[in-house]
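Students often ask what a 'structure token' actually looks like in practice. Rather than answer in the abstract, let us consider BatD family protein, a protein of 589 residues. Its sequence is given first.
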Amino acid sequence: MNIKNYISIILLILATSIASAQVKFEAKVSKKKLGVNERLRIDFEMNKDGDNFVPPSFADFDVVGGPNTSMSNYSRNGKRSYSKTYSYFLAPKKRGKFTIKQATIEIDGEIYKTFPITINVTAAVDKPNGNTTASDIASENIHLVAEVSKTNPYLNEAITVVYKLYVSLETGVSNWREKDNPRYNDFWSQNIEIKGLNIEKGEYKGEEYRYVVLKKTVLYPQKTGELKLEPLVLDITVEVPTNRRDIFGRPMMSKVPKIVTAGSRTINVKPLPEQGKPSDFKGAVGDYSFKVSTSKTQLNATESLQAKIEVAGKGNLNLFELPKLTVPSSLEVYEPEHQENVRTNLSGMQGRISDTYTIVPQYRGKYPIPSISFSYFDPDTESYKRITSDEIVIDVLEGPTAAISNTESSTEGIKQTINPNTNTFAFIKTTSDWSSIKTEPFFKSKGFWSLVLLPFLAIPLAIVVRRKKDERDADVQGNRIRKADRLAKKYLSAAKKTLGQKEAFYLALEKALHNYLKAKLNIETSDFNKEKIENLLAERQVESGVVSDFISILENCELARYTPITQVTMQNDYDKAAKTISLIDKQLR
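Now compare that with the structural description of the same chain:
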């Protein structure tokens, strides 16, 4: 063997010893892309034993297994090999891209670090892999199912999604939590409250299972075409039987973390048909009844009534507008009060919605409220339907008469006969009777000087009047008192005319008090009771003493029908009513 061969052998031995002395510390993952319902295994491997191993934080993952430590130390063909591994099993918390940061370890006094690894977590997959044997058993014995009532609904037609967790008879579930909640894009959604989890028996693919209903949701599609329902993902602890037995011979259970998904569903939403669509259709879909009603049809001017437009039934009650009320211009109409009494269950929304308008007529006469139509689409018959209300006539018995109404009523039905005249210009006078008029010149006369000086004399008077008016306008309290006194006289004028006639007086007095409250508090006669009046006046900051006086006058009106009353008592009640109305008007806020 020559010198060259010796040198080659020496170099090979040196290279082998250097390679064997090189320290390796690295992180390896089972996959870099996985579904949110899959597990990730990460191994931290080293070829030389070390101390003070510090794993990364795993902030975006749940540690469902580990750390597990494995070590091998063997020699083959005179070559020694050493390996040590720390293993973790991780479950991603949500979708997204996450970075597992560096792990560190100390080997022979030196600190070694792994490289960061980026993991891409996608939506749940249908067949998660990488599970352990116990997890495989759990996968075969537990299933999350989304039951959809209808996969091809019309636009705005209700569908329901019921999520059921099926568990085989040999398997148990200790706890669960929602890991990824579906987002119902392009749907109006409403979750149905579930009170307690009731275990029921059922079948899954022909086999006997137990199941619980975890979630119920009602959906109204707001868009046509193919719409995706994202899956519900649950993180569950499953108890599966093992091959071991306890002292009583029963199989021992092993707890396995498991992520299950209901899978995504596709809903094909049909548009509403254009053929036969009414012109007044506003998007109502379901089965409805329609009604227009008024609280009264006869009243006096300045009194109020309520007109209610109401739709009741089953459908998308919260997702369309009610028809508008149209009335003659002589009726004063206020903005409607919208009310909803709607409950949502598995069959969708049910109940009624209404708009209530307050109407105050200003003049005497008869005013028609035209009929109103309401259209909706019935998905059961796949056709449009229209309901039309009857015309309602409001009869205003007492009150001022509108000028235009007088003109119309005075000319209505009058026919004028026109007699032709042969002398078309007979109305023109063709003769004159002139007479001599002798007058004094107007210039420098008394009338002339009076007209010249009158503006100068009126200026001081106008100044005085203006000052008095400003003082009166500035007297806010005085104006309120005067206004209240006028209001009391207005409402009590009818009662004053019947002083001395017991029944007529107290009937007019009670009506005056009711009309005053209706005008001020906007409540109906049918709603009157003493307790409500006291509460309403107290809410409007009327003093309790004034409220008590008002209630006592109402009581006197009731008692007067059954007890003898003198003229003096009637006068006292009238004065007390006038004073009380005036005080209430001053204090109302």
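One point worth highlighting: The longest helix spans residues 446-474. Ask yourself how you might have guessed this from the sequence alone, and why that guess would often be unreliable.
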